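Issue: ligand-bound run for uridine 5'-triphosphate - logging full I/O for the record.

Environment: standard queue, default settings, no custom constraints.

Inputs:
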Amino acid sequence: MNQLFPRAGGISKAVIPAAGLGTRFLPATKATPKEMLPVVDKPAIQYVVEEAVAAGLSDVLMITGRSKRALEDHFDRNYELEEALTRKGDEARLSRVQESSDLATMHYVRQGDPRGLGHAVLCAAPHVGDQPFAVLLGDDLIDPRDPLLARMVEIQEREGGSVVALMEVEPSQIHLYGCAAVEATADGDVVRVTDLVEKPEPSEAPSNYAVIGRYVLDPAVFDILRETEPGRGGEIQLTDALQKLASDEKLGGPVHGVVFKGRRYDTGDRGDYLRAIVRLACEREDLGPDFRTWLRRYVNEEM
Ligand code: UTP
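Outputs:
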């Protein structure tokens, strides 16, 4: 079990906000958190917890909201199911069922009202304490073959302060993201973040570097979040707090960005969710060959 081998020193805690309303995915998300929607045969959130563990962060705090039962149950034992599979001698499925409960040391805190991502992160303050920590958005899926978080942790440990994940997007798409003004550094994949704007119009965007859902944060962010007024959409925005950190290094050290060029899916967006499923299913050893054959035929005949 990975929790027996936590990272030596440094960053060990991951916070996963999963309390949003998921309105883009209604009605599927009326009674089920969007993070529980399956991507092939695992809920999206399991990929995210696996990513944290793969980067050495096996102490995971999930920020939950409505319908939190499903999230908690997924990472807990299910003795009835395990017994039934044992009786049947179905070892393969038994171990798949046990994977999620053996993965990490899970903690939960409830965000009463979904008052924004910044507010969700602030709910983690008592658990995190005075150490840098990672934040992984529960609906943001980074392809397991394109590791990002370990590099972010490395940069934070070298440079101090906070680190955000950035991805270059089409200028027409920048209004969907937080956007960073950046300066180059000696590392090709690392930039210094000098300013951040939440969901800017393309004409006002300082760059096409979009902030995606991975962060390694200095705990100074909590004090800033406590004083951050609701911003865009009436929500307490994490981007607003990061903007303060980026504009005044004395508050909590510098803000760097690691530029990600791998595969990433926003599973809270229906189109991206479908793309994630098709791509990951095609590449699976067990399902891929048959699925690819069917998909090729479907595309040729129907498109
Ligand atoms: P989104 O911006 O995707 O918002 O949140 P949302 O409400 O979940 O989804 P839509 O836009 O209505 O479809 C980004 C991340 O922040 C979490 C979400 O769960 C998601 O992981 N979040 C957002 C919270 O935990 N609490 C909040 O108050 C808002």
